Amino acid sequence: MKTQPPPRRSFASDNNAGVHPEIIEAISQVNQGHVIAYGDDHYTERAVTQFQKHFGKDIAVYFVFGGTGANVLGLQALLKSYQAVVCAETAHINVDECGAPEKFTGCKLLSVATPDGKLREELIEPFLHGVGFEHHVQPGVISISQATEMGTVYKFEEVKALANFAHKHNMLLHMDGARIANAAVSLNTTLRKITGDLGVDVLSFGGTKNGMMYGEAVVFFDKKRAADFKYIRKQGMHLPSKMRFISAQFEALLSGDLWRRSAAHSNRMAQLLAQEIKRMPQVQLTQPVDANGVFFTMPKKYIPVIQQKYFFYVWNEETSEVRLMTSFDTTESDIEDFVALLKRTVK
Q1: The Cα angle at residue 247 between residues 241 and 249, in degrees rounded to 5
Q2: What percent of the chain has pLDDT over 90?
Q3: What pTM, to 2 d.p., does this model score?
Q4: Of the candidates 205, 224, 254, which is a domain's last residue?
Q5: Are residues 63 and 117 in the same domain?
Q6: Is residue 66 part of a domain?
Q7: C-alpha–C-alpha distance, residues 113 and 166, integer Å
Q8: Which terminus of the chain is less hemmed in, N or C, by CB atoms within 10 Å?
Q9: Is residue 138 exposed (0-12), middle (13-18) or buried (19+ Cβ within 10 Å)?
């Protein structure tokens, strides 16, 4: 049987995209000779300097292999085993990390239903009723995603309010920044102004979804919270031996405007797709398009037909809501071709 050719482009995830050519070049450039392993090299030193330029000289930053590791280890550094993490029901740590946060931190996740992926103070307050009661887990961390898993972006005042709320109640604020670059571009701001300046305590900084091959970072805005993190990272199996290849990618991403260019392009492609979706009465947007995710409903019977050429995920089977993600390498032609297929198929 003749197999079908693979789809020209996948809209399933920005993880499905390739690696930005400038990142490939950066990896190639450091693939010369020998350097000390495990991060004791000048390439890693230079990458750390770039993080300090973006987030402040008083930070501590540690590189890890992937996003789940960054989230789990970052949370582990903040928590005692009797504490809990409050997060959105749709949060990556709650849905897509196979129970790793609970397994490796020993802490419970307290998830909150929210229509747009955003936490708010009033949604967290019910979990405070058991504070001081030894039979209940004690809320220790609020974890938010920026941008959220629903494609929405927290505004400045929303993050600030959550940070103030957390600190008032002796909790800390963790940010899953797998798509932090997309959020910063959406808000037309710097990376620091939507993280440390607003009171975020620990950030999982994402590179993979913005054109890197692999590698994420855990950023502590108070170095004291990172006092034991080198041991946590090693025990957590996320200390890369050939760290220079992660470091080179981060330096390429942050030393110029590559992080911003890539995120701006993927955001713009999502806006272009959303504009076309709005013109079609048979499909309906379900979330604001703040970053590079587009959520909409369509008649269920047409989904497998379109997926034969363009793979994407069904977000909600019951409501026939789908999610399309754009990437640094999504083109206007990709959008035009997808929309043309959608128009031909959905009647």
Answers
A1: 125
A2: 97
A3: 0.96
A4: 254
A5: yes
A6: yes
A7: 19
A8: N
A9: buried
